[in-house]
Design a protein that fits this description.
Layout: H1 9-18, E1 34-35, E2 40-43, E3 48-52, E4 55-56, E5 62-66, E6 72-74, E7 80-84, E8 89-99, E9 102-112, E10 122-125, H2 127-130, H3 136-148, E11 158-160, H4 187-196, E12 200-206, H5 222-232, E13 236-240, H6 248-263, E14 270-273, E15 292-294, H7 313-323, E16 332-334, H8 360-372, E17 377-379, H9 388-394, H10 397-403, E18 412-417, E19 420-426, E20 432-438, E21 444-445, H11 452-458, E22 461-463, H12 472-476, E23 479-480, E24 485-490
Parallel strand pairs: 2-9, 10-11, 10-17, 11-12, 12-13, 13-14, 14-15, 15-16
Antiparallel strand pairs: 1-4, 3-7, 5-8, 6-7, 8-9, 18-19, 19-20, 20-24, 21-23, 22-24
Helix pairs in contact: 3-4, 5-6, 8-9, 8-10
């Protein structure tokens, strides 16, 4: 950021504190308890409840809860809340976390009502990297890795199975049947294991006669499928749209039928509407029971690419900018799974080796943009073998807290000039995020980029990582690398 022929040690030290470059951060397992992730959770009444309070810090940590609604209890050694609440209501609960380094408290809102996903969902999905190469053993190991890596402590909750879990045909009575080679103990066995870790299990089907991988679809089996998923302990259904009629009216009807079946399944099952954004689902998917909906075709491991069906990070960002006003608590625009850590190795996202992957800097921006626009955050790399760069990006609590802010407002594009996009995002309590993305292929300086009003606001900015105030002169010395994103937080002071 400083010109090589003009070294300035003091300024370099300041910039090390002030510039949010992401890669220096990794979530620590030391220190007093730190609450992370969502501060609100939703569940249907009279259905099984599971929520792990996301807390990092020195282990072991003990937990206590005040004013839990009747029917719920907390495991004091893990922070996992379970039970069943019969009546609708909004319950303000106080959680106390204590370890050898200190004690911390946090108010958590438990909303028992008609909405799930009151903050953008966080988890992991099999598709991008593994596609058909999945198994019970692998999924159990991935759940273990989500816990051991500290991801669960930051709010990651879901382990989602995509296509290819199916047997060749259904049971004779029409029930969905699991591939007994990949899942020798059955799906209920797997869900019990996932739940024992304080995590949730997602599954995949399709509104057509077949899935996209040509396994049996869900069309005309909606009720029996939803009931079976509930019996298996499934917590989420991703519902695709292959081998189905093209029209929007039929799509709405088919998604509504499955959404209704899920709502009647006597279990809180999140409904992911995956029709690729072709029929503008941001206008109607919430009415089908959807908690989030894809806004584009599938993502691929490339920063910028013109293909119609192989969507790049930039192509998805441009769509998200246009539809950001349709994102809200309980109904989110889905920018597709995250690429972080794929490095061109994904069976799906590499397009058979065509795409070689992003740089770590681009993965950092990709993650930041998904957080800014309140997309569900579904990692897809192999959690068992993450390198440090990947782990640091996925476990950056400052970014995740922007995503999980209870206000639930998406970022909006406020300017685009000279190769730099600027976004704003409102947070609960009057704070605001300003982010700048260099989408050009050249390094850019922020000098002269902001007008007087913007500079006046940014003079009160805090670096999202350090929390230190940034002066106007320091801001104007910043250079942004190609495809880099820098984020500032304005407190209004």
């Amino acid at each position: 950021m400083i010109q090589p022929n003009k070294p300035n040690t003091k300024l370099l030290i300041l910039l090390a504190f002030f510039v949010y470059s992401f890669s220096a951060f990794a979530q620590s397992n030391s220190g007093a308890p730190q609450f992370n992730g969502p501060k609100i959770t939703g569940n249907y009444p009279n259905t099984d409840f599971l929520f792990t309070v996301p807390v990092s810090g020195q282990k072991p940590i003990s937990f206590k809860a005040e004013n839990l609604p009747a029917g719920l209890s907390i495991d004091e050694s893990t922070g996992i809340i379970t039970g069943n609440v019969k009546e609708k209501g909004i319950y303000a609960t106080t959680i106390t976390a204590t370890n050898a380094a200190g004690t911390n408290k946090q108010n958590i809102t438990i909303n028992i009502g008609d909405k799930l996903c009151l903050t953008p969902l966080m988890g992991w999905n099999t598709w991008n990297v593994f596609t058909y190469d999945i198994s019970e053993k692998m999924l159990m190991e991935m759940a273990d890795a989500m816990v051991s890596s500290g991801m669960r402590d930051l709010g990651y909750q879901y382990i989602n199975i995509d296509d290819f879990w199916h047997a060749d045909v259904r049971e004779k009575n029409g029930k969905p049947k699991v591939d007994s080679v990949k899942f020798p103990h059955g799906m209920k066995y797997l869900s019990d294991y996932i739940h024992s870790k304080g995590l949730k299990l997602g599954i995949y089907s399709c509104a057509g006669t077949m899935t996209c991988g040509k396994r049996f679809g869900g069309y005309n089996y909606e009720e029996i499928d939803a009931k079976t998923y509930a019996e298996w302990g499934i917590d989420l259904l991703k519902y695709d749209y292959c081998f189905a009629p093209w029209g929007r009216k039929t799509a709405e009807e088919r998604y509504t039928k499955m959404g209704t079946a899920l709502k009647n399944s006597e279990r809180s099952i999140v409904f992911s509407v995956c029709e690729w954004g072709i029929r503008k689902p941001w206008l109607w998917a919430k009415n089908t029971g959807g908690s989030y909906w894809r806004i584009t075709p599938d993502i691929f491991d490339v920063w910028n690419h013109p293909a119609v069906w192989q969507y790049s990070v930039m192509a998805i960002l441009k769509r998200a900018e246009k539809v950001s006003k349709y994102s809200f608590p309980g109904g989110w625009n889905d920018m597709d799974m995250m690429l972080v850590g794929n490095y061109g190795n994904g069976k799906a996202t590499s397009a058979n080796g065509m795409f070689k992957g992003l740089t770590d800097l681009e993965y950092e921006s990709h993650m930041a943009l998904w957080c800014l626009f309140n997309s569900p955050l579904l990692a897809s790399c192999d959690l068992r073998t993450m390198n440090d760069a990947t782990k640091n990006i996925l476990t950056n609590s400052n970014l995740l807290n922007i995503s999980q802010n209870t206000l639930g407002k998406s970022a909006k594009l406020v300017s685009k000039k000279n190769g730099i996009r600027m976004f704003e995002k409102e947070l609960l309590g009057g704070a605001k995020i300003i982010a700048v993305l260099n989408y050009s292929e050249k390094e850019k300086s922020l000098k002269g980029y902001f007008n007087k009003k913007e500079l006046s606001e940014l003079n009160h900015a805090q670096n999202v990582l350090s929390g230190k105030n940034m002066s106007q002169s320091e801001l104007e010395t910043l250079n942004i690398k190609p495809h880099q994103t820098i984020i500032f937080k304005l407190t209004g002071k």
